[in-house]
Write a structure and sequence with these properties.
Elements (H helix, E strand, L loop, with lengths): L11 E10 L2 E10 L5 E5 L7 E9 L1 E6 L22 H12 L4 H17 L2 E8 L15 H13 L2 E8 L21 H15 L5 E3 L1 E3 L7 H10 L6 E5 L3 H11 L3 H8 L6 E5 L5 H10 L2 E4 L1 H7 L6 H6 L3 E4 L9 H16 L13 H16 L16 E4 L4 H4 L3 H11 L5 E6 L2 E5 L2 E2 L2 H15 L4
Parallel strand pairs: 1-4, 5-6, 6-7, 7-8, 7-9, 9-10, 10-11, 11-12, 12-13
Antiparallel strand pairs: 1-2, 2-3, 4-14, 14-15, 15-16, 16-17
Helix pairs in contact: 2-3, 2-15, 12-14
Length: 468
Amino acid sequence: MSIFDSSRSDMETFFLKGLLLNDGWLENAYVTVDENGRIVSMSDRSNGAFETIDALAIPGFQNAHSHAFQYAMAGLAEIHSTNETPDDFWSWRDAMYKLALSISPEDLEVIAKQLYAEMLRHGYTNVAEFHYVHHDKQGNPYNNLSEMGERLVAAASAVGIGITLVPIFYQKGGFGKPAVDGQKRFLSATIDDYYELLEASEKSCKHYEHANVAIGIHSMRGVEPTDIAEVALKGRRDLPFHIHISEQLKEIEDSIQYLGQRPVEWMLDHIEMSDRFHLVHATHLTEAEAVGLGHSGANVVLCPSTEGNLGDGIFPLKTFQENGGEWSIGTDSHVGLNPFEELRILDYGQRLITHKRNSFYSKNQGDSGRFGIDMALRSGRKAMGNFTHHYFKVGEFFDAALIDPNPALIKSSSWEKLASTIMYSSDISMQYGTISKGKLVVREGVHLKANGIADDFVATIQQLGSRR
């Protein structure tokens, strides 16, 4: 059941101590929403009854890259044998395949509910689910091609997060290599097979008002590059386009051997990209690639906690931004779920390699906190197919991350210094709650359905035996 099933028959007004708008904070804000959760008005004056929430509201975060099933293995790939070659991305991938082969549709829904509830607790109100576990455990399609995707949509509906389902086109086991047994649940042999999956996924999204689809390519090693170009050029042009790219050095070496070019170099030469494109990780770029990618209008999705966990590397953010590039954040394998931590890891990594402190900076914005919130929001929304630049707008759904105004550092900060104080000095204890689609779904750090969801998750994981 969705938390939205009991629709309100009238409007509701929230009183907040502050509301972050594009041009600054609105102090003592009254936000009225209609029965569907859309904003009717925002004002510093009340027009009637209201619910007081002792919090500051900033725009809900957009989680632009998620593999929900991997949450079940968060923290488990950190024990390394001292008798073998030290662990790397490729051995981590083998462990991930083992998990992917073991979960049922019911298991996936339970895992995703727990994960999405945690995302909401941390202030995310929308997630782009990069979904590639499509088939049954033998690798055969379900009668409903989107059986697994439909479970993800159901999980999102149950906890109240918006979801962009990104069914992934996955063909191969590497550049010029057939798929391996561990990938059998992921595969669509042809473009037409993928389009059938995309169509089925779109039907699954019709079950939930706050669900939509995007196009997804696993990677250039996972799909024949000529097929990638055909989907990009001849496929649906009204949908966001997501792809993993240039995450690992071996991937780049294999691309050069197979194509004679690096992955992003090839994309820039063969596909006319725009701001509907979202390149995930893009860790290892030459300066020419970073410049070209920025000029192309394409977005990059950065997942700092996962990229650090996997030893991927550090994205050349400074060059990309200086050439007009925009980026969002995602939690990928979910070893970290706090958007403020993702932003801090990203920023501090850049400071360590540039030896400067102005990585979150533009000619129009010198407040690093405001810059990080703004960039992650705007580019993250585009990853979901939402091109609205307003933080909050009449007619749009009210999505907000709520910050406790009472911790000493926050309480003593001026409005001008508040965003950076929140971003650089807060932890999860300072996050009061979350409003998603006009509904308060997390209050005082607790999701409204936390206990039942957590109990189901623990039982499912114990039955899988994956954390023993």
